Fold this sequence. Notes:
The protein is α/β, with parallel strands linked by helices. The protein contains 9 helices and 9 strands. Helix 4 (150-161) links the parallel strand 6 and strand 7.
Amino acid sequence: MKTIETVQCFNGRQIRIEHFSETLQCDMKFALFLPPQSEKSEVPVIYWLSGLTCTDENFVQKAGAQRYASEYGIAILAPDTSPRGDGVPDDPDESYDFGLGAGFYVNATQEPWKKNYQMYDYVTEELPQIINTSDLPIDSSRSSISGHSMGGHGALICALRNPDRYCSVSAFSPIVAPSQCPWGEKALSRYLGEEKFLWQTYDANDLIANGASHLPTLIDQGTADNFLEEQLKTNILEKTCDDTGYDAYIRYQEGYDHSYFFISSFIGEHIAFHNQFLKTN
């Protein structure tokens, strides 16, 4: 790993790290906030997964999460949203919702994507391994995960498929049923192929419908989100949770849209939610 930037923030350190990813077969960058408590002892970590078109920098620059992470003594690790670099394939149509910046946190099985687009393994396997084998002051046995939009989808599927690895999960405006929306149908069909039964393992709604183990779950959705009806479909997940008895705390926030203004308004509550289960106090 190579540290390429360190700045002081709320008495902690906001760091940007570059490394070669064996999983993605390219150089990658991730952002890491270390709270002041990490100077004395290991701290728990929240993984943050960002949405379409984002990099590792959007969340750490716009959400204002460091203030709360510093208060509770929690590290935040924010990876990029897709593999990057020369030789990494992109959507030939240069669309924003597929290819670079749109890895959808799946392990691609189709050409030409499968060599590099292994974002699920990158998040759930490689990044924790990097923490465990480094001298970073992070206690990886206390991990939670959160995200926004495509990253909310990523956080939910990573947690639902690995309930033993995460203490809690939260999401802002997540794509809860990618098998049933245009963004998801486009990405899953190209990364995984046309057999829809293969999509179910990357669909939070299907995972819960099929009996996924319960984790403490918080979801915030803005009522003024212009993607709500066509892409996000929060009501589908609500019904599935009701039908299966999955105890997810789903909140509709009146008047909020899909932007980082929404995230920054409630990120403190999300970090406080995770803090309960990370047992930092």
